[in-house]
Amino acid sequence: MGKVRRKQAKPRQSPKSTDKSQSPPSKARKAKDKFREGPNIAIIGGGTRCHDLLEMFAHDRFKHLKAKIVAVADINPEAPGFLLAQEQGIYTTTDYRDLSDLENLDLIIELTGKEELLKDLIGNKPPQAQVLDYTISRVISDMVSFKGEYKAQERDLSLSQSMISTLFGGIREPLFLLQQDYRILDANEPMLSLLGMSKKEVVGRTCHEVSHRSLQPCNSRACHCPMKETLKTGLSAHAIHEHLDRENEPRYLEIFTYPLKNNYGQVTMVFEFHRDITDELESRLERKARQVKKDLARLVHEDKMIALGKLVASSVHEINNPIAGIHTLAKLMLRTLDEIHLQGEELDEFRRYLELIAHESSRCGQIVSNLLSFSRQKELERRRVDINDVIRSVILLCQHRMDLQNIALDQQLDHHLPEITGDYNQIQQCIMNVIFNAMEAMPDGGKLTLRTSPDRKKRMVHIKISDTGCGIPEENLSIIFEPFFSTKEEGKGVGLGLSVVYGIIREHQGTIFVDSQVGSGSTFHMRFPIVNKGS
């Protein structure tokens, strides 16, 4: 405001105005104002508070106060309240002392807060006018400021509502807006389409009631609730759930939750997005299954090489003995031929020698052939398999090692055993690994029993391999088929044998379990499905 000036003895001129078209109210208007319904108000200070106060009067915010603003004074003619007053046809002036010439002025509101100006105003105001001091004016100012803040919050709220509306309308993924009590505030069209329900049927119900047909929130380990985690941490969360679609078919959905917070950082609402990954998950599982099969085939071959090394170590001696006999007989025959001519009994003796050589060389060839067949890596080839034949071929390879370890063999093979369908090589590997485990459990000798029998009621072939070895502790029974589990000394095994056995049997839709007692031995039970009739 301008400098405070003392009262002049000389009569005052007409009030100054920034707009020549504006002047104090005419006599006719003054007469009319005698019958007015409320007080006339003048404002000193044309800033933003004045602007907001003028807007409130213009929009009739004070319904029970029949008052009107008749003048605005400010030294800055560009002030926002000053300009708005001119637009509304209200008298304006750059000199607040001009207000003293206004008749029928009832109230002056001072919004500048300048003490000297207030004192001067009180001394020069019209007699009938009241002046609101700074404190009361400040209250009005704060009310106006509150109105401005309220309007700003209204705009923010309107913007937020617009953003939420745009979000719901534009997102193609199924979406819920949830309250803290899990109740649904809103759902977009993709979500309603997924559920096969209308918005009226969804809004107001809980998310778990709609998605899981459950009255309780998700709380199991298998069904982790991301909503609960978001409410607890205030952060986004993620989970994979199995939901029922509109046709009650199970679908696998990826759930994402995001918090909506108030000004105090408290979570008030939660966005929940759903993404259908059923097809993607099935594709992943198929790829994983193929990879598992490849890994199983690799493990089978690696374990087979380990078993082959053990076989070769024991078979070398078995092959070496007949070869030494063949060599000795051949040298004897050559020496005899050089010394004498063969006649009668000598020819018969030579014939026996040749028969012995043929038998021993045939046995060597059979052993070598079995070793080569066992070591060969082949693709999975399903065909009819006679379990008894498989067991006999394994015994042929292991017989010499059993003899060296002083292990007695008891074979109880059912001669009318039905055939099964499977890969000969892999089934041979199964039986070989279990027999090797049995022999290693009897380092000082014992008895190995092999028994086969049909279980026609369950349409399975039952194989029992029993030993009289050290047995398996009870705490290990549940983990002996896990990969890399081994009780052997370091360097004598990597723990793949029984895990490979388990994998092969499962691949053939069979079962395996073990009975064991420490100090009394173990019995492995293997079952394979019988060939279906007509296949």
What features would you describe in this structure?
By secondary structure, this protein is an alpha/beta fold. Helix content is 44%, strand content 20%. The chain contains 14 helices and 17 strands. It has a five-stranded parallel β-sheet, sandwiched between helices. Strands 7-6-10-9-8 form a five-stranded antiparallel β-sheet, with helices on both faces. Strands 12-14-15-17-16 form a five-stranded mixed β-sheet, covered by helices on one side. Helix 10 packs across helix 12, helix 10 packs across helix 14 and helix 13 packs antiparallel against helix 14. The termini are far apart. The N terminus is likely disordered.
List keywords for this structure.
alpha/beta; Rossmann fold; Heat Shock Protein 90; 3 domains; 5-stranded parallel β-sheet; 44% helix; disordered N terminus
Secondary structure elements and their pairing?
Blueprint: H1 27-33, E1 40-44, H2 48-58, E2 68-73, H3 80-87, E3 91-93, E4 107-110, H4 115-124, E5 130-132, H5 134-170, E6 175-179, E7 184-187, H6 189-195, H7 199-202, H8 207-211, H9 226-233, E8 237-244, E9 250-261, E10 267-276, H10 278-339, H11 345-375, E11 382-385, H12 387-404, E12 407-412, E13 420-423, H13 424-440, E14 446-455, E15 460-467, H14 497-507, E16 511-517, E17 521-529
Parallel strand pairs: 1-2, 1-4, 2-3, 4-5, 12-14
Antiparallel strand pairs: 6-7, 6-10, 8-9, 9-10, 11-13, 14-15, 15-17, 16-17
